[in-house]
Design brief:
Helix 3 (97-115) packs parallel to helix 8, helix 6 (159-174) crosses helix 8 and helix 8 (201-223) packs parallel to helix 10. This protein has helices at 2-19, 29-35, 97-115, 128-131, 141-155, 159-174, 185-192, 201-223, 260-267, 291-301, 335-350, 359-368, 372-381, and strands at 36-38, 49-61, 64-77, 80-92, 121-125, 231-235, 272-274, 277-280, 304-312, 320-327, 353-354, 357-358. By secondary structure, it is of the alpha+beta class. The protein is globular, with a radius of gyration of 23 Å. 41% of the residues lie in helices and 20% in strands. It has one domain (49-245, 258-393).
């Protein structure tokens, strides 16, 4: 089978390479140059800064899954280094295991960000916009509304106000704690209210999703003022096509739809940034918008937008995406204010860079990584090995 696929790949090699070759994308060079603004950042190390990343891993046994998630924050405040690990190890029963583990990881990262958010610069690995996408069980608007209705019928009409207060109390309680065994308020509710059957799947997904959105709200509230922002989401890779999806390059020029980050990488070299775009949080239209949740979630995110830009802080260095949350309720910042904010972040990151990338993000990536070996150690230490995984027939025991 491998030889068969290799033969196909070799026969199509030229076609595949041409689709992403710089020469084939040449018609877009002029458009890229129109968007790119050269800027040589100053090397300014912020008085305080923090970085957040996370990871997850799992082992599937017959009938259940052992998972581990980690959100990890690292801060330097007043010449003092502060670590903020937030993790969990537990079992999940199918279905929907993958989505739930991803939600737990994202919530753990948000809690870690909350714990280290009192700094001049908070850098979070990833995309804010991606964090607002529904998990699969709530993918459609009807499914979301149905889950809300079922939750209110089962848990009471005032439940989500109590849920919001419980999450806030929990965040305040763990802010200074170095070890938190059960960081997720949603799990406490799921077990205490007996939401354990397959019929409760939609309610479970809703509680876990809403918890993430509520924690994110607290993180954003602490880091976005009316006139400035101290938080930035940073992506080393990106599939967004916001800049070039409607680029006019002439009727004769036909180029494949390609990501913004690749085009800025190909056709720029010196430090600078792309003219920022304000991206409304499109997913807000599908966020919970009934009852108490309309006020706590939809009402808040209606007032937030993302200033999107791509940047390079050293010549020949990597291009990466910045998503800067900003308040847009009263019209939002002007283009001049946005560009000033981007340049300030670039100055800070230049003071923290290694090979053109902020080294605190490199450190939290390493510290948060959960390897297959880690999972083996965890499973063995709590007595789950040796157990049947179902892969023994392939002579794979872990």
């Amino acid at each position: 089978m491998k030889d068969y696929l290799l033969e196909i790949a070799l026969r199509k090699a030229g076609i595949i390479r041409s689709r992403v070759s710089e020469a084939n994308l040449e018609p877009l060079r002029r458009v890229v140059e129109e968007y790119w603004k050269p800027y040589e950042p100053r090397e300014i190390e912020p008085a305080s800064y923090s970085a957040v990343d996370g990871s997850h891993n799992r082992v599937d046994f017959k009938g259940y899954t052992l998972y581990a998630v980690m959100g990890y924050g690292l801060a330097r405040i007043n010449d003092r280094v502060v670590e903020a690990p937030v993790g969990d190890v537990d079992l999940l029963l199918p279905p929907g295991v993958s989505e739930r583990i991803q939600l737990y990881r994202e919530t753990a990262e948000a809690i870690a960000a909350y714990k280290v958010s009192r700094s001049d610069l908070l850098m979070i690995d990833g995309s804010l916009k991606a964090l607002l996408i529904h998990p699969r069980p709530l993918a459609g608007e009807l499914a979301l509304r149905s889950a809300i209705n079922k939750a209110e019928e089962r848990l009471g009409e005032e439940f989500f106000q109590e849920y919001w207060e419980g999450i806030n109390n929990g965040l305040e309680g763990i802010r200074g704690e170095s070890l938190v065994v059960d960081p997720f308020y949603s799990k406490k509710i799921i077990f205490s209210r007996g939401l354990l059957s397959s019929d409760d799947r939609g309610i479970i997904a809703l509680l876990e999703y809403v918890e993430k959105l509520m924690v994110l709200r607290r993180v954003l509230e602490e880091n976005i003022d009316e006139d400035r922002s101290r938080i930035v989401y940073i992506s080393k890779t990106s599939r967004t096509m916001e800049y070039f999806k409607k680029a006019e390059i002439g009727e004769k020029d036909v180029v494949p739809v390609i990501s913004d980050i690749l085009l800025f990488t190909y056709f720029t070299e010196k430090p600078g940034y792309s003219k920022p775009l304000i991206i409304p949080l499109e997913e807000v239209k599908r966020l919970p918008d009934t009852g108490v949740l309309a006020r706590i979630i939809r009402g808040f995110y209606d007032e937030v937008g993302i200033a999107l830009t791509f940047t390079r802080i050293i010549e020949g260095g990597p291009v990466f995406k910045l998503e800067i949350p900003v308040r847009i309720a009263s019209g939002g910042p002007s283009m001049e204010e946005l560009e000033s904010l981007i340049r300030r972040f670039m100055d800070y990151m230049k003071g923290l860079e290694v090979n053109g990338y902020p080294y605190p993000l490199i450190e939290v990536d390493k510290a948060s990584k959960i390897t297959r070996g880690d999972m083996h150690t965890i499973a063995q230490s709590i007595g789950l090995l040796p157990q049947i995984t179902g892969r023994e027939v392939l002579e794979e025991w872990f």
